[in-house]
């Protein structure tokens, strides 16, 4: 079930012009490369109505079969797209599909035409190979799926590949890593357009951690721990994330998994890669930061809901994590929103 969007003044603040987003598919494209960004921009419309006009397109329009067999319908033909385009996104796909599309001069011509008139243009995952085939990555930095980075650099010598990046922006051209990175990229573009708070609300509604824009890997440490831990410890990690204000002392957590405190601390560090106290502090800092971004709660309530208990403890934790107090961080978010909307 989709969460109901906020009715705050920010959510009602629509931009003066509608931003047209064209997401390009082709036979054998990866369906998640299309659905992920499309869903993120659509969610942004719920919080900032009238922000995006989302168009799904292919060379000939009509129907298109993706690499999973899922068929896309009612696609617009690329040749019929006219007028100003804000964002052009090219999906990735399997190797055979990329070879076919990369040899289709009509397809590449349309990509070049649309990219030339777009405010920004880019790719999701292996769609970078199609940008390269269209000559759009020459003398630029770029990234693609980690398993294809070496090949991208070998095929397009004018490209500087950034293999560790989640996504890369070089001028008006952007590229992203794997399928999940398309959501990082989309959130970054939404934040650029509509401000940090709208992007944070989209991330939270889609059950994502907001990953900051930039050309480096910026994964949430909490999310990384959730991905790493398994079994009873995986369940415990998820419970901790969902209950930051609970009793998260070593004794209480050890009791949940039926271990002695000594055994628990040893196994937790092996499973998660951090001590229980380090992980709990990271969870609480991320929870507090999210509420600072998304609410107008006083610091006392943020401290209580995130499990810090007092404003003093919250401020010490933020100084340690971000080298500035929570009030300064909230002010920075508000300033970013005013500049972005």
TrEMBL record:
<dbReference type="InterPro" id="IPR002818">
    <property type="entry name" value="DJ-1/PfpI"/>
</dbReference>
<dbReference type="InterPro" id="IPR018060">
    <property type="entry name" value="HTH_AraC"/>
</dbReference>
<dbReference type="InterPro" id="IPR029062">
    <property type="entry name" value="Class_I_gatase-like"/>
</dbReference>
<protein>
    <recommendedName>
        <fullName>HTH araC/xylS-type domain-containing protein</fullName>
    </recommendedName>
</protein>
<dbReference type="GO" id="GO:0003700">
    <property type="term" value="F:DNA-binding transcription factor activity"/>
</dbReference>
<keyword id="KW-0238">DNA-binding</keyword>
<dbReference type="Pfam" id="PF12833">
    <property type="entry name" value="HTH_18"/>
</dbReference>
<dbReference type="GO" id="GO:0043565">
    <property type="term" value="F:sequence-specific DNA binding"/>
</dbReference>
<dbReference type="InterPro" id="IPR052158">
    <property type="entry name" value="INH-QAR"/>
</dbReference>
<keyword id="KW-0805">Transcription regulation</keyword>
<keyword id="KW-0804">Transcription</keyword>
<dbReference type="InterPro" id="IPR018062">
    <property type="entry name" value="HTH_AraC-typ_CS"/>
</dbReference>
<feature type="domain" description="HTH araC/xylS-type">
    <location>
        <begin position="234"/>
        <end position="332"/>
    </location>
</feature>
<dbReference type="InterPro" id="IPR009057">
    <property type="entry name" value="Homeodomain-like_sf"/>
</dbReference>
<dbReference type="Pfam" id="PF01965">
    <property type="entry name" value="DJ-1_PfpI"/>
</dbReference>
């Amino acid at each position: 079930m989709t969460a109901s969007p906020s009715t705050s003044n920010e959510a009602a603040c629509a931009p003066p012009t509608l931003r047209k987003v064209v997401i390009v598919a082709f036979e054998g494209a990866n369906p998640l490369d299309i659905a992920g960004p499309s869903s993120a921009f659509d969610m942004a419309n719920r919080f900032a109505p009238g922000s995006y006009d989302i168009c799904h397109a292919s060379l000939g329009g009509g129907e298109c079969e993706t690499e999973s067999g899922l068929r896309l319908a009612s696609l617009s033909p690329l040749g019929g797209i006219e007028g100003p385009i804000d964002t052009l996104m090219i999906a990735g796909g399997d190797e055979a599909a990329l070879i076919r599309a990369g040899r289709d001069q009509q397809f590449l011509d349309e990509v070049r035409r649309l990219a030339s008139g777009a405010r920004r243009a880019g790719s999701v995952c292996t769609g970078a190979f199609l940008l390269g085939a269209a000559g759009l990555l020459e003398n630029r930095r770029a990234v693609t799926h980690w398993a294809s980075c070496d090949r991208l650099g070998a095929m397009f010598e004018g490209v500087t590949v950034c293999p560790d990046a989640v996504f890369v922006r070089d001028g008006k051209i952007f590229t992203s890593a794997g399928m999940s990175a398309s959501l990082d990229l989309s959130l970054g573009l939404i934040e650029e357009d509509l401000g940090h708070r709208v992007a944070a609300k989209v991330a939270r509604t889609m059950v994502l951690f907001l990953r900051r824009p930039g050309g480096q890997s910026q994964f949430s440490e909490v999310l990384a721990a959730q991905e790493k831990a398994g079994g009873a410890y995986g369940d415990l990690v998820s419970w901790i994330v969902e209950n930051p204000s609970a009793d998260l002392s070593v004794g209480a957590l050890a009791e949940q998994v039926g271990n002695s405190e000594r055994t628990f601390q040893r196994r937790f560090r092996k499973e998660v890669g951090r001590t229980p106290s380090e992980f709990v502090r990271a969870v609480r800092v991320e929870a507090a930061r999210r509420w600072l971004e998304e609410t107008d709660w006083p610091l006392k309530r943020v401290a209580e809901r995130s499990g810090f208990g007092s404003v003093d403890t919250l401020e010490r934790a933020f100084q340690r994590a971000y080298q500035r107090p929570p009030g300064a961080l909230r002010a920075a978010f508000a300033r970013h929103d005013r500049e972005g909307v």
